[in-house]
Design goal:
Layout lengths: L48 H20 L23 H9 L10 H8 L3 E6 H7 L4 H8 L3 E6 L4 E6 L7 E5 L2 E2 L21 E8 L3 H4 L6 E7 L7 E9 L3 E11 L6 E12 L12 H5 L8 E15 L2 E15 L10 E18 L2 E10 L2 E4 L2 E5 L6 E2 L7 E2 L4 E7 L12 E17 L2 E14 L12 E12 L7 E12 L3 E13 L4 E12 L3 H5 L5 E2 L7 E16 L2 E15 L1 E4 L6 E6 L3 E14 L3 E14 L12 E10 L5 E10 L3 E2 L10 E2 L3 E12 L5 E8 L7 E8 L4 H4 L11 E7 L4 E9 L1
Parallel strand pairs: 4-7, 26-30
Antiparallel strand pairs: 1-6, 2-3, 4-5, 6-7, 8-9, 8-41, 9-10, 10-11, 11-12, 12-13, 13-14, 13-15, 14-20, 15-20, 16-19, 17-18, 20-21, 21-22, 22-23, 23-24, 24-25, 25-27, 27-28, 28-31, 29-30, 31-32, 32-33, 33-34, 34-37, 35-36, 37-38, 38-41, 39-40
Helix pairs in contact: 2-3
């Protein structure tokens, strides 16, 4: 952990002192300078011992000073009747906006969500009640069912998935957990899918920001951000326990309990944990597998599991400052199998992580919030392929050497893929990352405010030395400035002009900009727009990892993204209920897109010189009917192709729509939810050498639903029946082109690896009709 000491001190410029009664901290990083910079640079790994000690002392001193006393948005005081899950917005305008941008339920999101909405961003909040009503067991299901504009990449039933907003790919939508980025650094030989490690039972609110969000959140937020805010202790005693069982032998057990440590409730703890396991639905049809995979028994294990345990601490230091800490350990297990290569692939991801958040309101004009997060995910992966006879005269059987296996057939044995290890001897890949973000929110007057801050991201690869990836520390340090204007001559207009400069060890300095605009009319209508530039860094394995089939490219450049989102809408009461609708469009250009060649031996990563152009339309509407009924509908149309081409890029549906219909009985005990999803044409391109047409695995409709019954005086006992895929639709959420490398006809030379017969498409099947029952108790 010595590399963590290379984080430089966080010293604040004395000009902030005019907003506070406290003296500004001294500049520990620049001895003798009476006016230190407001951000100290990250000290590189080759610091002298003296410099390291001095900078470590500076960090400690700065944190000690900050511990004395501001929150970017003030926390509820101890003993409040119902404190917000994260932060309470203090000004009336922001509070009104938070009420308007809710999807369902009563709770609000962070001040960041309110401010981004106020200044032209399209923001959606999904609450714990929404998630509970859907009965979801992983973050992919939540995104697919509730997040507007979201499409899922990879296969959640397999244990791998990414969330893609508005036509973007896997690296364009950043998922964060309480502000901790879950961006996959791509260590070693495999990806680590960060979103798979989220426990849905601990989610309080999901904040969804559409449009480029790298200003505050850094790399991989070029098209959007999904920030998961989790439940926290609040100085009171309360708990939750739940259990679920359903199709595919799916078991889910979860609990959390929080309690005060002192009589005033200023110190409180929460312990939480969950266990989810399933045998898994069948992912591949027999037609998807080569003849030798079928001869070997096919792929019969699709099991997944996720274990979470953690503890949270809250210290309500005083009425103006709060410290929250979260220490967790997550382990995920799944089968990384494919119908034309890996027949058995036990995979395990372990992630210890910690998040510390300090908020302080210094005065009515100044607040500060500091978030520090650390994570150290590690992946262990063993893959077995069918052993086939590639000798024309035949091969000894793996089970009986006296028997000869014919040329091209399965021998009865299995081979482990090279470079991965087996079982406990698996070769692990991983990384550790420390992110510190400090934001100061300054109000000059009713018309002018700003956010000043810095972000420091430090990571290094911790993969096994046998993988031969450098473990040097890589530091990315950013300066953030966001000028917020509410002109006195047009009080309903909000304007944001912002910029961010990153100083990156490997890729040099780069500056991005962002603007936002929103105008609210007295009639309840509004217009909005936001746009700017963002970036996505290459992954470690894309840069440096070499295998028999793919080699890294250390000359890769970051992807650059330009976005423009605009629209208009209305938020106003109709017949005593709130009607909200938003009609808009987005335009995104991605340069230097990182891709992999096809049909070469080996393939390599490269930056595509052709710009990826994504154009789309969005329509969102929600209405809470006067009597116990609410409904929402969201539609996204997206055209995504390379400049000069009309071919839709892989795994990007041309359109999709989702709905959410909820009804509650007059007694408030019965609750019914329907969650339809329509998905249009979605294709994947065949390798160019095959000459095969694109494969369409879209054009489907799936309806999910649930029934809940709440018992008890306070409705604290909750029973639920969840039905997935009510109409038993046959559909695929992911597809790929496989090949016949393990097929007997190819091995015998009946065709080559450049002939159409060598390639074929297959889908990862979605869940068939399935049933899940659950019980939860809140106390």
């Amino acid at each position: 952990m010595s590399w963590i000491r290379q984080i430089a001190c966080l010293a604040w410029r004395p000009y902030l002192a005019r907003f506070s009664t406290r003296p500004a901290p001294c500049g520990a990083c620049r001895a003798g300078d009476p006016f230190p910079l407001p951000w100290g640079p990250i000290v590189k790994s080759r610091l002298s011992t003296h410099s390291r000690s001095r900078c470590w002392l500076a960090v400690t001193s700065a944190l000690a000073i900050l511990a004395a006393g501001p929150v970017a948005a003030q926390q509820a005081p101890a003993g409040a009747e119902e404190p917000a899950s994260e932060e309470i917005v203090q000004d009336e305008t922001s509070a009104t906006l938070l009420d308007a941008i809710q999807v369902q339920g009563e709770k609000a999101g962070t001040e960041t969500a309110a401010k981004l909405e106020q200044y032209g961003n399209q923001v959606q909040l999904v609450t714990a009640e929404d998630i509970s009503a859907g009965g979801y067991t992983n973050m992919a299901e939540i995104a697919q069912g509730l997040i507007r504009g979201a499409n899922i990449g990879y296969s959640p039933d397999e244990g791998e998935f990414t969330i893609r907003l508005d036509g973007g790919g896997d690296r364009d939508t950043l998922v964060a957990l309480d502000g901790m980025p879950l961006y996959d650094r791509g260590p070693g030989i495999e990806e680590i899918w960060g979103a798979t490690l989220i426990d849905p039972h601990m989610i309080d609110t999901v904040e969804v920001f559409r449009g480029g969000q790298s200003l505050y959140f850094g790399s991989n937020a070029g098209i959007g951000l999904v920030n998961i805010i989790t439940k926290k202790p609040d100085g009171t005693s309360k708990g939750e326990f739940g259990v679920s069982y359903g199709s595919f032998d799916t078991r889910d057990l979860w609990a959390n309990y929080s309690f005060p440590l002192d009589k005033d409730g200023r110190h409180s703890l929460m312990a939480y944990g969950s266990r989810q396991a399933s045998s898994g639905p069948t992912l591949f049809t027999p037609e998807s597998q080569t003849d030798n995979h079928l001869a070997a028994g096919g792929i019969t294990d699709y099991s997944t599991a996720r274990d979470t345990t953690g503890v949270k601490y809250q210290w309500q230091i005083d009425d103006t400052s709060t410290l929250n800490a979260d220490l967790m350990y997550v382990e995920s297990r799944f089968q990384d199998t494919f119908p034309n290569t890996v027949i058995y692939g036990p995979t395990r991801v372990e992630m210890p992580a910690a998040i510390v958040k300090y908020d302080k309101t210094w005065s009515e004009r100044l607040s500060t919030d500091i978030t520090a997060s650390y994570r150290n995910p590690t992946l262990y992966n063993t893959k077995f392929v069918p052993q086939v006879c590639r000798i024309p005269t035949g091969c000894p059987s793996a089970t009986n050497p006296a028997v000869t296996t014919p040329f091209g057939n399965w021998t009865g044995g299995f081979d482990a893929q090279a470079g991965r290890g087996i079982g406990d001897a698996s070769i692990p890949g991983g990384f550790e990352e420390l992110v510190v973000t400090a934001l100061n929110r300054i109000t000059f007057n009713d018309s002018l405010s700003m956010v000043l801050g810095l972000q420091s991201i430090n990571y290094r690869d911790t993969s096994d030395p046998r993988i031969n990836i450098d473990d040097d520390l890589v530091s990315n340090n950013a300066i953030i400035a966001d000028l917020l204007l509410n002109p006195s001559f047009s009080p309903n207009t909000s304007i944001s002009i912002a910029g961010r400069t990153d100083f990156e060890d490997s890729f040099g300095s780069q500056t991005i900009g962002k603007f936002g605009l929103r105008h609210d009319f007295d009639s309840g209508f509004y217009v909005r727009a936001n746009g700017g530039t963002s970036f996505s860094l290459p992954k470690t394995n894309e840069l440096f990892y070499n295998s028999e089939t793919v080699v890294g490219n250390p000359d890769l450049k970051p992807e650059e993204t330009k976005t423009l989102n605009y629209g208009f809408g209305m938020q106003r009461p109709v017949n005593g209920s709130l009607l909200t609708f938003d009609l808009g469009a987005f335009s995104t250009d991605i340069s230097n897109r990182i891709q992999t060649t096809q049909g070469l031996t080996p393939n390599t990563r490269y930056n595509n010189e052709a710009v990826t152009e994504i154009r789309g339309l969005v329509a969102d509407v929600q209405y809470d009917f006067p009597k116990n009924l609410s409904a929402s509908f969201s539609y996204t149309r997206q055209d995504a192709s390379l400049h000069g081409s009309s071919v839709q890029i892989n795994a990007t549906p041309e359109w999709f729509a989702t709905g959410n219909i909820r009804y509650s009985s007059d007694s408030g005990r019965w609750h019914f939810t329907l969650l339809p999803r329509w998905q249009g044409k979605e294709t994947i391109q065949a390798p160019a050498v095959s000459g095969l047409p694109e494969y369409n695995y879209g054009n489907w409709f799936v309806l999910n639903g649930s029934v809940q019954f709440w018992m008890g005086e306070d409705r604290e006992h909750r029973f639920q029946l969840r039905v997935v895929n009510i109409f038993d639709e046959k559909y695929g959420g992911r597809a790929s082109f496989g090949n016949q490398y393990y097929g007997s006809a190819y091995i015998r030379g009946e065709y080559t690896n450049r002939d159409p017969e060598y390639f074929y498409p297959y889908t990862f099947q979605g869940k068939e009709r399935s049933f899940f029952v659950s019980y939860s108790h809140q106390f």
